[in-house]
Every structure is written in structure tokens, then in C-alpha cells.
Amino acid sequence: MSEDDARRRDAEDPGHRALFLVPPAQGGKYRECAYLAGNSLGLQPKATRDALLSDLDNWATFGVEGHLEGGRPWLDYHSLLTGPAARLVGALPEETVVMNTLTVNLHLLMVSFYRPRGERTRILVEESAFPSDSYAVRSQARFHGLDPDTEVIRTADPLGRLATEGGKVALVLLGGVDYLTGAALDIPAITRAGHAAGAMVGWDLAHAAGNIPLKLHEWGPDFAAWCSYKYLNSGPGALGGVFVHQRHLDDPSIQRFEGWWSTEPGTRFLMDPVATPPKSADAWQISNPPIFAMSPVRVSLEIFDTIGMDALRARSVRLTAYLEGLLDGRTLVTPREPERRGCQLSLRVTDADALSRRLSRDHGVIADSRNPDILRLAPAPLYSTYHDCWRAAEALRAEL
């Protein structure tokens, strides 16, 4: 396929690149880079700077009164993010809260939902679990006095393991989209199987939120958590999101760690020594929210709310299929079926790190590598273009 064909496709099927700041190319003949690393860190929306400066201005104008004054008072600021975040993941507003970062949230949720008892002590994770998830579940097992080498089960076949060993599994905790291969797991089927086996089921949606459509309330997992710096374009280390299913929100038997923001807002300043948790995911909050960290998340969620995941997913399928066609003959480790993947395509190559550096330095193509032999290309439907995909394929052809 020609460069002219890529340009034609962009004219017929434009995304929303104009909303974002695209880094300049460090190599090659084009001014902007072909940015295909949104699965690692999304681009900055142009509106983020003004939103953050506006919140800083409120601090300058109101001082401590900013908790109750100004256009976005800090006391309720996190609630501005709740509705859009819930819509993004197919949840009810009361099931959703934006707080902390991903692994912190996973630990807080495991306090509530990993409760080993008797023979039911094991945690089921995927074979290629992201290292941070692996560290987290292993440390949770140790915290309960268990041996993580025996209690953490890594598997490439969660449905099969649940069928044979489900009676020993206390918690299923899997990634909704595999970070290495880009494969999308069957969240509803695995959730049903986990519950049928008597286990709690949670999902790490770091590579799924903003990438594939989600229906968490309908699918019924017990909890989920996600980050906001990949497909949600909220900046490095951005605040993440939490989902707790409605059936758990009024259950007094569930254990939680609590703090200043875990209690009902209406009673917070009565300064009572005992918390009165709201019947919502807000009860899992601990500290008051970092306002300046919430500004970029608010901007990003407004973009998703305006455009809609259905439209983005449809463009993602078209864009990823186009890139796949250009890569025909390369060794893909990502499923070919669109319904079994997000927008990431992973290639098996020799010396992925060196190849990724050459793509950036010599061609202005920003990809992403995972040692020793995986190169990841993610045409994010918000801002990636057909021309970006064409440039990546041409660069790979030149290098390989």
C-alpha cells in the first residue's frame, strides 16, 4: 500500500489528532513522530495545560477557601470524574471512583477481596502477568503468612485451571488485555467461571480501559482497577480508577483500610473518631484527592465522554487491521481476530530494544519494546493515523 493510500484513508477516516500535542520526530524526513506507544504512555491533550493552570489559579485566588469556593471546589472535585469514568468502563457511578495509582489500588482492593480461608487460599494470575501485578499478589500472599511460590498460580489457561483447581482459588486477578501480546481476555466468561468456582474475581484493566469496550456492571466482577496514563492520556504516574460491584457496597462484613476520605462527606467535618462509610466505591478512598493530579484525568475523561468508546473502538478496529495488513509476513504474537485484541500489535523480532531505538532515531517512529524479542505497536484511535501506520511499516521494512 502506498503513502498516497494512507493519506487518502486519513482524509476519509480522520481521528482526533488535533486535540493532542504530538512530539517532533528525532529522525527521518517528517516533522512529527509517528507515535505508536500509547499503550505505554498516551499523548498530552492540548487542553490539559489550561485546565491545570486554571486549578492552580484557584489556589492562588482562594487559598484554603478553594475547598468550597471557585468553579471546581476541591471538596467534591473527585466527583467530577466519577460519571465519565463510570461510563468509560460500563459501571454505575456509585461503583466507581478515581484515586491513587494502579498498584496501590490493587492492594487496597485485595485487602477487601483476597481473604484466604481453609483450603481456599490461592491467587490465579496469567502466565505473562505484568511484573508489578506479580509482585503485588505475591506480597499479599506473604502478608497472610502463605508461601507465594505455592499460592500464586500462573497460567495461560485460566478457564482450565478454574475447572480443575477452582476449589482452592480464593482470588482470580487477571489483566483484561495482556500487556505483552495485546490479547484481550474473555472477561465475562472468566468472571462467570471464577464465581462458579467460589472465588472472588478482579481485573487489572491498565491495557483495557480506553482501549476496548467494557461492561463491568453487567459482567459482574467483584472489583477492577486501571491506570490513566496509557490509553487515557492523563500523564506519567496519573491517578487510576477503581470499580467495586454494587452488590458489595452495602456489605458490612467487607474489610477496608480507611482514612479521611472514607467517610460520608456530610459528616466529615464533624470530626467523629469513627468513620461512616458511604455506600459507594468512595468508601475505598483514604486520603483527600490530589487536585492537580486530577486535572489531566478530568480533561481526558471529557474527551472520551464526548467522542464515545463505540466510535473509538470502531476506528481502532479499522486502523489496527490496516497496520496488520502492512505487516503481513511479520511474526505477530497478537491474535488475528479483532474481537480478541485491542489496538496493540506485538511482533517477535531479534533484539527488540535496539530495533526500537533505531526506529526512533532514524525514522521518527516511536514504538515500544519488551525484552528480549517483542516490539509493540499501538495505533491509538484517538490520535494515531493511517500515515503513522504506513511510516512504521516502511521503517520496519528498511530495518528488517
Automatic annotation (TrEMBL):
PTM annotation (N6-(pyridoxal phosphate)lysine): residues: K230
Cofactor(s) essential for the protein: pyridoxal 5'-phosphate
Taxonomic source organism: Nonomuraea rosea
Official protein name in the record: Kynureninase
Ion transport as UniProt keyword: no
Pathway entry: Amino-acid degradation; L-kynurenine degradation; L-alanine and anthranilate from L-kynurenine: step 1/1; Cofactor biosynthesis; NAD(+) biosynthesis; quinolinate from L-kynurenine: step 2/3
Keywords assigned by UniProt, alphabetized: Hydrolase, Pyridine nucleotide biosynthesis, Pyridoxal phosphate
Keyword Hydrolase: yes
Residue positions binding pyridoxal 5'-phosphate: L102, T103, F130, P131, S132, D133, D204, H207, Y229, W260, N288
Taxonomic lineage from the root: Bacteria, Bacillati, Actinomycetota, Actinomycetes, Streptosporangiales
EC number: 3.7.1.3
EC top class named in words: hydrolase
Subunit structure: Homodimer.
Family that this chain belongs to: Belongs to the kynureninase family.
Pfam families the UniProt entry points to: KYNU_C
Reactions performed catalytically: L-kynurenine + H2O = anthranilate + L-alanine + H(+); 3-hydroxy-L-kynurenine + H2O = 3-hydroxyanthranilate + L-alanine + H(+)
Function: Catalyzes the cleavage of L-kynurenine (L-Kyn) and L-3-hydroxykynurenine (L-3OHKyn) into anthranilic acid (AA) and 3-hydroxyanthranilic acid (3-OHAA), respectively.
InterPro entries hit by this protein: Kynureninase (IPR010111), PyrdxlP-dep_Trfase (IPR015424), PyrdxlP-dep_Trfase_major (IPR015421), PyrdxlP-dep_Trfase_small (IPR015422)
